[in-house]
Write a structure and sequence with these properties.
This protein is α/β, with parallel strands linked by helices and about 350 residues long. It folds into two domains: about 1-120 and about 285-330, Rossmann fold; about 120-280, Rossmann fold (3-Layer(aba) Sandwich). It has 15 helices and ten strands. It has helices at about 1-5, 15-20, 30-35, 60-75, 85-95, 120-140, 155-165, 180-195, 210-215, 225-230, 245-255, 255-265, 285-305, 325-330, 340-355, and strands spanning about 10-15, 25-30, 80, 100-105, 145-150, 170, 200-205, 270-275, 310-315, 320-325. The strands form four sheets. Strands 6-7-5-8 form a four-stranded parallel beta sheet, with helices on both faces. A two-stranded antiparallel ribbon has the order 1-2. α4 (about 60-75) crosses α5 (about 85-95) and α6 crosses α7. The protein binds 6-O-phosphono-beta-D-fructofuranose (F6P).
């Protein structure tokens, strides 16, 4: 908006994402009232999960209808701001019709292939990390196991970064289906035997056990429920709708062997689950996200002024770059060779190996 104002271009805001675009819901964006928007969390434009291409028989037809909206709304160009859902609509508009659209990546999940970071991500990481720091007070005083559920249905960036940042003792992410016995029970036993009296487990809402572990280790989920679950690309049932932190606590409570191990070490055995949920999309953005949002906005407006449509802005290292929407909107996941995976595993292992009683 700053760059548009400086270039003498009038801005309107489309309310509720693609829903507002289809239903002509707009507001004028007056620079005097909105020149410090980057300091405020959330969006004044509201949001929705409407995808006009969903279930459409002819994508060309939908794209043409959307492009026709430009005249109806009296706009020359559109800057689409959002994650893979929002930007894939922008991409389809450009693919199936000629559309004056550029993309700007924004999601707390950070799961867009085209950019190293999306704005919103680091603020949410900080909130989750602070929440785990805060939970440590009770965990330490009451000698408890806390299972903290963090947003992220299929990408574990939020859990991995906040978990490492807060020094969580076990970190479970959707990218590496876990073994309950090896990755949770064994680690807790080793930790309690090494002298630890409290434990923080950070889990993505979309983290799930591998098929073998699900069949062998999980007593609280019926076979019927498992059969009905959607599967990942390897055929593992996804537990994303089942409240994984509660399931883990229920399963821990059934483990007499684990309880005994705690008792033998004079430690109370009490487990609690905490779902951080929408508290992670709360409050004011941190400085990194404020500045990244402004840099993205400036770069997106330059693309509009240069007529470079069909592209999105992205952060590569510390540089703002341009990449085609078709590439940028692909999903990104934590890869098995990532240094974050290595750090996570080292943190878990080194702690119980090095602790002196
Ligand atoms: O897509 C972002 C995201 O924050 C996910 O991590 C989370 O699962 C989801 O949104 C929650 O969406 P809703 O607000 O619709 O419950």
């Amino acid at each position: 908006m700053l760059k548009a104002y400086d270039a003498g271009i009038e801005c309107v805001g489309i309310l509720k994402g693609w829903k507002g675009f289809v239903e002509n819901l707009t507001i004028p964006l007056n620079i005097a009232e909105h020149d410090d928007l980057h300091t405020v969390g959330g969006t004044i434009l509201y949001t929705s999960r409407t995808n006009p291409f969903k279930g459409a028989e002819s994508k060309e037809k939908v794209a043409k209808n959307l492009v026709a909206k430009f005249d109806e709304l009296g706009i020359d160009a559109l800057v689409a701001i959002g994650g893979d859902d929002t930007l894939s609509v922008a991409d389809a508009m450009c693919k199936y019709s000629k559309a004056n659209v550029v993309g700007c990546p924004k999601t707390i999940d950070n799961d867009l292939a085209g950019t190293h970071y999306t704005f919103g991500f680091w603020s949410a990481v900080q909130l989750a990390s602070n929440a785990m720091d805060n939970l440590t007070t009770t965990a330490r005083s009451h000698q408890r196991v806390f299972v903290v559920e963090i947003m992220g249905r299929d990408a574990g960036f939020l859990t991995m970064y906040s978990g490492i940042s807060a020094g969580a003792d076990i970190i479970l992410v959707p990218e590496s289906p876990f073994s309950f016995e090896k990755d949770v029970i064994d680690v807790l036993k080793k930790r309690v035997n090494a002298g630890y009296k409290y434990h923080i487990i950070a889990t993505s809402e979309g983290a799930y056990p591998n098929s073998e572990s699900l069949k062998k280790d999980f007593k609280t989920i019926s076979k019927e429920t498992i059969d009905k679950l959607p599967k990942d690309t390897y055929g593992n049932p996804l537990l994303v709708k089942l409240n994984i932190s509660k399931i883990i606590v229920d399963e821990l409570n059934l483990r007499e062997d684990l309880k005994k191990e705690f008792q033998n070490n004079g430690v109370d055995f009490e487990c609690r689950s905490v779902v951080l949920g929408h508290t992670m999309r709360a409050g004011t953005p941190n400085s990194f996200d404020r500045i990244l949002g402004l840099r993205f906005g400036l770069a997106a407006m330059k693309l509009v002024l240069e007529g470079k449509f069909g592209n999105m802005v992205s952060l590569q290292g510390n540089k703002i770059e341009t990449i085609p929407l078709s590439e940028g909107v692909k999903k990104k996941y934590i890869t098995s060779d990532s240094d974050k995976m290595e750090l996570r595993d080292l943190l878990v292992k080194i702690r119980y190996l090095s602790k002196q009683n």
